[in-house]
Description:
It contains 13 helices and eight strands. By secondary structure, the chain is an alpha/beta fold. The strands form two sheets. Strands 2-1-3-4 form a four-stranded parallel beta sheet, sandwiched between helices. A four-stranded parallel beta sheet has the order 6-5-7-8, sandwiched between helices. β7 (273-276), α12 (285-302) and β8 form a beta-alpha-beta unit. α4 (61-79) crosses α13. The model has no long low-confidence stretch (mean pLDDT 94).
Amino acid sequence: MPDELDPTPYDALLLLSFGGPEGPDDVVPFLENVTRGRGIPTERLKEVGQHYFLFGGVSPINDQNRALLDALRTDFAAAGLDLPVYWGNRNWAPYLTDTLRDIVRDGHRRVLVLATSAYASYSGCRQYRENLADSLAALREEGLEPPRVDKLRHYFNHPGFVEPMIDGVLRSLADLPAEVRDGAHIAFSTHSIPTAAADASGPSEAHGDGGAYVAQHLDVARLIADAVRERTGVDHPWQLVYQSRSGAPHIPWLEPDICDHLQERHAAGVPAVVMAPIGFVSDHMEVLYDLDTEATAKAAELGLPVRRSATVGADPRFAAAVRELIGERAATERGQKTSPCALGALGASHDVCPVGCCPARAPRPAAAGADSPYA
């Protein structure tokens, strides 16, 4: 077997995602899961849930994960990679603990984890690792011996993640009216997080003591903008912007907000904008509502032509990238030298999150890291 198709010592892959409601009756219980421990009243959760009710109470994320599962299994089978793929969510069925229980009962002992978040941050990495630790601890309480879990590195700058987004921006530009196309601005959008969390994201050799979240997004934005210029001959202005803020007003979060940015770009005379959601793996609710609904309505109010480019989703190139990441990590675990694949200025991210990486306000055990209780 070629080294790149040998998953040893791993015997399973877990797709770990956020989860989402699949009907109106699921919305409030789902939001209760998401906000557990924060004391948010049910009536407030019903208000927040209006975003979901606009779409029949169904988040698209679960169907998108099913499509990604199919893409991964199809790619693995075609390439000859023999590795079963499981799926578990943090906040809705299939729940992570249930999936890990199935993994144990199926006899798997070394599990790689693919999180549906490409960048470093507490909510995009460490919180998933904390949920893994919680679920592994729950299995121990049930008398089961949990598997060892290792998380695949951040894949924000892997060609299989970047190239589909380049194509998406090119398609969106081509869809604009010819008279505004060359002057179009590109707004690269990602989830806003508290500035304190952004400052603490990392650390790593590339980012020192923090700041990885913004630095990684900026590197991806530059990669896409440079590729667009090379392929079209047009140097489109661009900026990294933010969406989906959900915190208390007195806490500083990353800015500018996408809607404020559209208004500012319109006032500056920009003839059109392409919104490129580089911070999201798939077209889940925050893309459908915050960009396709709210930001698009704002642009219509301004009379500003906008297009929203596609996320990576279940693109076959992304599935192939996951296979390559598995081969890379497995070879490293076997003690073989590897050449990690990464574009841009930052290089490949670390395989193992260092101690103190992307800390929370209140420290909790986190799996799949240098400080993991289940290494």
